[in-house]
Write a structure and sequence with these properties.
CATH superfamily: Glycosidases
Bound molecules: 5-hydroxymethyl-3,4-dihydroxypiperidine
Shape: globular
Number of domains: 1
Radius of gyration: 21 Å
Strand content: 5-15%
CATH class: Alpha Beta
Structural class: alpha/beta
């Protein structure tokens, strides 16, 4: 039986600049917070990653051989503006060449302007807790749009502000590695503000474009359906999912969430008059990243710190994942994907959705020139079936971007986690199509599963 997808469904793959480009000092690129963080913490750095800055033509050729018609990539702010404000034409020229090469191969480029690699010079000004960054981001967005807007139609402002704010400034596991929950909340607000200002800037430059933001969602599961468990789940859900979603939809921060976070004392004072209107720029589509659900449990001591990225979210804790896990230890629950999409369909009032990332890391091995990654094939098959089920039940899902085209630099985990459809030998930079790439190419060719 074939599960057919709607006509015109957008099939793609996704990557992000710092995870694949390498060449971190080439052509005037300035340092980003990830260069500083990885150098300081001694984990592997983003150089050479997949050496994509120099090998992009080969990678585009690979994409075209796979027949996947959309490609979502991110622009490195510190390449285009090494100090966060002054344009470096050689950096901009790289993305110009990349877009042209994609188009020459019949591949539609989808640009993400920010995938976590803040120019270090702007971190020196306080980073995302400094609201001035929202204006700098809008200037940067306009600069990139002026350079590529004649050829690129799909624009995403920010990828996963949850991670940029709460993991970067809350628990400090990501760059810039700061542990200050109050600052993390302000960073979250300023990232939303930056999105709103960038959306305005993109639209001010004319042309027909689709403007989106990409959020990572974690549906929340509990073991027991009683009031205290439901409240624990509500807390995590509001922090993880609705902190970002509701202001974008013009509903402001949910009052219960403001109450959950009031003891940290920073979020409400950071919301200036007019901010919520700026944040609520109309979205043409919402980018949805789904990997795994979270499990919530009530914390008996209401004053105790929880085990979530914002430990000061009191009254709940996060439980370990269960069942079949990926190599990153993430729980595989495709059915939660269907439920999430149906919930979004309703909560967002019919806003079109695009899956901007979905995929899994497993331990892969090259054997006689092949990578038989059955677990990833199964993961994609089940998750695509879950998307299909959501569409059948009324969700307006317009596309699916597999994460990721290439094995790459997985942030704090360095090169230990392979998410690619294409295996990369980081010593030789040899690329090998995994079985999952062939499987995905077949799905794309049939527009069905
Ligand atoms: O690799 C990341 C990506 O950069 C953002 N979303 C989640 C992926 C897997 O962890």
């Amino acid at each position: 039986m074939t599960l057919g997808f709607p006509d015109g469904f957008r099939w793609g793959t996704a990557t992000a600049a710092y995870q694949i480009e390498g060449s971190t000092t080439a052509d005037g690129r300035g340092p980003s917070i990830w260069d500083t963080f990885t150098t300081r913490s001694g984990v592997a750095t983003g150089d050479p990653a997949c050496d994509h800055y120099r090998r992009y033509r080969d990678d585009v050729r690979l994409l075209s051989e796979l027949g996947v018609p959309y490609y979502r990539f991110s622009v490195a702010w510190s390449r285009v503006m090494p100090d966060g404000r002054t344009v470096e034409p050689r950096g901009l020229a790289f993305y110009d060449r990349l877009v042209d090469t994609l188009l020459e191969h019949g591949i539609t480029p989808m640009v993400t302007l920010y995938h976590w690699d803040l120019p270090e010079a702007l971190q020196a000004k306080g980073g995302w807790p400094n609201r001035e960054l929202a204006d700098h981001f809008a200037d940067y967005a306009l600069t990139v749009h002026k350079a590529l807007g004649d050829r690129v139609r799909q624009w995403t402002t920010i990828n996963e502000p949850f991670c940029a704010a709460f993991i970067g400034y809350g628990n400090g596991d990501h760059a810039p590695g700061i542990q200050d929950e109050g600052a993390a909340l302000v960073a979250g607000h300023n990232l939303l503000l930056a999105h709103g200002k960038a959306a305005q800037a993109l639209r001010s430059n004319g042309g027909e474009q689709e403007v989106s933001i990409v959020l990572n969602f974690a549906p929340v599961l509990t073991d027991v359906d009683d009031a205290v468990h439901r409240e624990a789940a509500r807390k995590f859900d509001f922090l993880h999912n609705r902190f970002f979603l509701d202001p974008l939809l013009g509903r402001g921060y949910p009052p219960e969430l403001l109450a959950d976070l009031a003891h940290l004392g920073t979020l409400e004072p950071a919301i200036a008059d007019g901010d919520l209107e700026i944040i609520a720029q109309p979205l043409d589509v919402l980018g949805v990243n789904y990997y795994a659900p979270a499990r919530a449990v009530p914390l008996e001591d209401p004053e105790a710190d929880s085990n979530c990225p914002l430990p000061g979210l009191r009254g709940m804790d996060v439980q370990p994942p269960r069942g079949e896990l990926t190599s990153l230890g993430w729980e595989q629950r495709p059915e939660c994907f269907t439920e999430l999409l149906l919930w979004l369909q309703e909560h967002c009032g019919g806003l079109p959705l695009v899956i901007a990332e979905n995929g899994a890391a497993f331990e892969d091995e090259v054997v006689e020139g092949r990578v038989h990654d059955e677990k990833r094939v199964r993961y994609f098959a089940h998750h695509l079936a879950a998307v299909h089920a959501a569409i059948e039940r009324g969700a307006d899902v317009r596309g699916y971007m597999a994460w990721s085209l290439l094995d790459n630099f997985e942030w704090a985990m360095g090169y230990t986690q392979r998410f690619g459809l294409v295996h990369v030998d980081f010593e030789t930079q040899k690329r090998v199509l995994k079985d999952s790439a062939l499987f995905y190419a077949d799905v794309v060719a049939r527009n069905g599963l």
